[in-house]
Structures are given as structure tokens and as C-alpha cells.
Amino acid sequence: MTNNINYAIGKNGGESPIVWSPNACHNPHLIIGGSSGAGKTFTIRQIINAFVTQGVTFTVIDKHGDINDLDHINDYNFGYGLDRGINPLSILPYKDYGGPEANALAFVGLLNELSGLHRLGPEQQNMLHNALINLYRANGIKQEDVNTWTQETYPDLTDLQRFLMHKYKKLLVGGKDDSKEMDYLYDLYKKKKALEKLERAAGKGDDVKDKILATISTLLQKYEDYLKMGILNDKDFLIYTNPRGLLAVKNRIQNINNSGVFVKNEISLKNSRVIIKNLEDEQKKIVTFYILKRLLDVFLKARYSEHVRHYLVIDEASFFLDIPKISNLITRIVQEGRKFGLGIILATQNPLSFNSDILLNTATKMIFSVEPVIHRLVSRAFGVDPSLLKSVMPRKHCMYSTKAVNNGAYRLINRL
Ligand SMILES: Nc1ncnc2c1ncn2[C@@H]1O[C@H](COP(=O)(O)OP(=O)(O)O)[C@@H](O)[C@H]1O
Ligand SMILES: [Mg+2]
């Protein structure tokens, strides 16, 4: 591996080109800002092709599917039919990463952040969390025993979907082909519903006090009968409290899973371009979250490195930053990645979407032409002279700043 990797950006008057050398900077991270058509993706392509031949590896998240023509990089067009992808339910077997519990929390939390429309209520989040823990358990993965966290294959979203369906049926199907246990559960649900109805009536002022007490006493009797069946270890009754809510949780997982990419058969992230253009927005964000998480988790356990060994590239990064869990991972990579040789390259049409932690921890910035309406704000956020911004032409120029040179003062670079 070469320590001194270089990318020639263009010229600034003189004969010799201005060169970006990430390993000579405070950190290897790069922000590329500029409006549509300014030359961001073109630059990303050049940087990857330059560094990959100098021994650096890459994971590229390609939102538009236009970072093509990359040398030595495997393309994975995420979507149905690829039969490969990334598994949100896989776990790294390190105690400090928290195992099944931490993974379940992260998954439920991410779903919660993703969509206001299909937001799961607290009861549903609880059911999903419990289902995840039970699914892990059913696969021999136990929170209390870190040795069980290692598996050939972890359950995936199809397993989760089936598991939820199974629980749903178990709650709903009364008797007939099923065991006696079902009859009791079904009866319990009917009585519980009746009680709820009575309580609502009581809330409206109806005199149903006696009926409520009678129902409670039958409910208690039924529950006692149920427990006497010797199925004390069947806690489903207490966990999956609401069949309709459970069905909604199952449908939510099914909806995410219909992309076919949250599967056991995972792609290698080394020298990979992950094309997410054919996925739904929500699925794009889930894929990106788990790629970020996986890279950060793996690199935090890697050996210390003076030089950047791997780059994560995210084009159209602003799209992902409205999800706090993703923005948090990006922030952690810019803060902690350097020590372990993990760098990040972020391109965006809206350079104003980065939080100050990301801006402060990214040593190098390239600002291409940006819309005049945001000149003033970009100038303030990035510390670049607004009058210089006016002279930046799409594709022809960019403003370049790296902390290592001239204390980060911007220079106008001629790209051609
Ligand atoms: N330095 C350059 N030299 C030649 N063509 C360029 C250069 N920069 C960009 N282009 C071309 O301009 C078009 C828009 O560039 P692109 O990188 O896709 O913009 P962005 O990603 O910022 O929207 C593309 O066709 C690209 O090939
Ligand atoms: Mg682009």
C-alpha cells in the first residue's frame, strides 16, 4: 500500500497541478458540494479510479446509479433478483456491541425514524422488539451468552416476517385444527375485548360496574385455566397483546422486505458499488444505515492505521442526513474513522445540510458552482469568500480547501 496517495484536482495558475493527498491532511475525509451538473459525480469517479490503483479499497453508495466506469470495483444493483444484499439482523460477536438486544433496539429505532406515515405505536414497537429477541433465541442466539452470537447465518427479514405471521396466526386461530391451548387464548382475547368495551362504556357514563366486575372475574378464571394447562412458558399472551397491531408490524416488515435485499447472503463491502436507485426511499436509507454501521463496527475493531485504507463514498449525501441515526453514524465515521484507516467522501447538492461536527472533522472541501441563492450561506458555513463563489463555473472550476495547506484558505482551481 502506498502511503502517499494523490489525486490531481486541476491547476491554480501555475504549471504543476494542485494535488489532494489525504494522508498529508489532518484526516482523509472529503466533502464535495455543488449544484446539479457541477461535476461532483465526475470527480468522485476520478478519485476512485485514481486511489484504487494506489491500493485503497472502496464502498460506494450510488443513489442515482451514475458512478459507472469504475476500475476494479464490483457493481451490485440492489433490488429483487440480485439474491444478495445486506442483513440487518446479523450481529458482530463482540460484547461491547450489545448483541441481540442492541441490534433489536437499533432496528426498531431506525424504522421509527424512517417513516412518519407508517410509524409504529409504542405497543407495536414493543411487539417487534420482542419478536426480534425471540427470533434470535429460536436460532440459538442468546443475549446472555456472547459465544452464541456467532452464526454461519443469522435470521433475516424473511425469517422475521414468517415469525410474526406465525405469532399472528397463533393469536387469532381459535381451536379446530390447533391445540387446546389456542382455544384458551382465543377465549381470553374475546373476554379481554369485552372488558375493554365495558370500560369504554363506563367512560361514557354507563352504569356497567357490575358487568365489569363479572367480566374481570371470568377473565381471571380463564387465565387461571390457561395457566393450569401447564403452558407457563408461553409468554406470547403477554407480549403480543394486539392481533391487529401485530399484523400491521408484519406488513411493515413485509413491505421493507419486498425489495429482496435484506437477506442472509450478504455482499462483500470491499471494492463494491452498491446501486440503490431502484429501491424505495425508505429501503435506500435502511441499506445505507447498515452499510455505514457495518463499516464503522468492523473498522473500530481493526488495527490502528496511519493511512487511509478504505473509503466510503456517499453521493447525494443530504438525502440521508434527515435520518438522525444515519447522520449520527456519518458523524462518528468522520470523528473516529481516521485512526483505523476509514475515510469518507460525501457529495451533495446542498452543502448546508451537514452539521457542524461533520464540517469541523472533514479536513478537505471541494466547492463546485452552487446556486446563487445559497452563496451567502455557503460562504458562511464553509468560510469561503462569497465573491470567489461567483466566479466558479460548472465543470470548469472548483474551490478547494484543505487544512494542511494555507490553513484551509480556499483556492480557485481550474479543472480543465
Ligand atoms: N471536469 C470535467 N470535464 C469534462 N466533463 C465533465 C467534468 N465535470 C463534469 N463533467 C460532465 O458534466 C456532466 C455533469 O457532471 P456530474 O459529475 O454528473 O455532475 P453532478 O454530479 O455534480 O450533478 C457529466 O456529463 C460529466 O461527465
Ligand atoms: Mg451527481
Cα gyration radius (Å) = 27 Å
Stretches with pLDDT under 50, minimum 5 residues: 174-178
CATH architecture of the largest domain: 3-Layer(aba) Sandwich
Coarse structural class = alpha/beta
**Oligomeric status:** single chain
In short:
The protein is α/β, with parallel strands linked by helices and 416 residues long. It folds into 2 domains: 7-78 and 266-414, P-loop containing nucleotide triphosphate hydrolases (Rossmann fold, 3-Layer(aba) Sandwich); 95-257, no CATH class.
Characterise this structure.
The chain contains 14 helices and 11 strands. Helices cover 43% and strands 12% of the residues. The protein starts with 6 loop residues before the first strand and ends with a strand. The chain folds into 2 domains: 7-78 and 266-414, Rossmann fold (3-Layer(aba) Sandwich); 95-257, no CATH class. The strands form 2 sheets. It has a 9-stranded mixed sheet, with helices on both faces. A two-stranded antiparallel ribbon has the order 1-2. Helix 2 packs antiparallel against helix 3, helix 3 crosses helix 4 and helix 4 (157-172) packs antiparallel against helix 8 (243-257). By secondary structure, it is of the alpha/beta class. The radius of gyration is 27 Å and the shape is elongated. The chain binds adenosine-5'-diphosphate (ADP) and magnesium ion.
